ALKB5 demethylase (Dicaeum eximium), 242 residues
Amino acid sequence: MAGSGYTDLREKLKSMMPYRDGHKSGGGGGGLPREPPEAPYDRKRRHQEDSGSEPSDYEEQKEEEEARKVKSGIRQLRLFSAEECAKIEARIEDVVSRAEKGLYKEHTVDRAPLRNKYFFGEGYTYGSQLQRRGPGQERLYPRGEGDAIPEWVHDLVIRKLVEHRVIPEGFVNSAVINDYQPGGCIVSHVDPIHIFERPIVSVSFFSDSALCFGCKFQFKPIRVSEPVLFLPVKRGSVTVLR
C-alpha cells in the first residue's frame, strides 16, 4: 500500500473524507453499503433460465470484451526459481509457527476456515471486522498495532521486485501473507481503492494456483459462478494488478 504525495496514508484518507475524522478503525462512517455488481455469467445464466434459450452472440461478445479488459490490466512474470521459492517458503513456515505460539501482535494475524492472513506493516479492517459493511468502509489500524515487515521479506522478495522494475524503491509499506489450506479460497473482492495504491503485486509460493475474475459467490453451501477470466498462477510467479 502506498499513499502518493503523503508521508502517511492516514493523512490522505483524512483529506479525502474529513467528516469521518475521529472514528477509530472499523468504526465506519457515512455512506450506505452497495451491493456488488452482478457477474456477467449470472446475468447470462438467469436469462437462459427465464427464457430457456441460449445466450445471444451479443451477450457472448460482451463477456469476451470484459475478459479482455480485465486481462489488459494484468502482467505476469516468472521471477523466483525453485531454490528461491524453497528458501522463502521456509520463512513463511516460520511465520506460521510463530503465529501459533502467539508471538505476533493481535492485528497481525487473521484466522478463517482454510485460510489465515498475516499482515505486516500497514494492516486494515475488512469483511466481518467492519461495523458497517460495504466498499469504502475499510480502515487502517493505528500505527504500531501490527508487526513490521520482516527483514527477510525485504531481502528475498521486495528487493527482487525493485531490481526487475516491477515496483519502484520504497513503494511497499504493507506485506500480507495469505496461507491457504487445501480447498481454501478467498471470496470475490476489490482491494480498497481508498487504501491501496496500484499496482497490487502478488507472489505465489508452495504450489500452482489460479486467480478468477468476475465470480459471484453464494453461501450455505458455498457455490460460485464461472469466472469471466481464469488466470493460472504458477509457483514463483509474480502477478501485477493495475
Summary: The beta strands are 74-78, 109-112, 115-121, 174-180, 200-203, 209-213, 217-218, 223-224, 229-233, 237-241. The helical segments are 9-16, 40-51, 57-72, 82-100, 151-163.
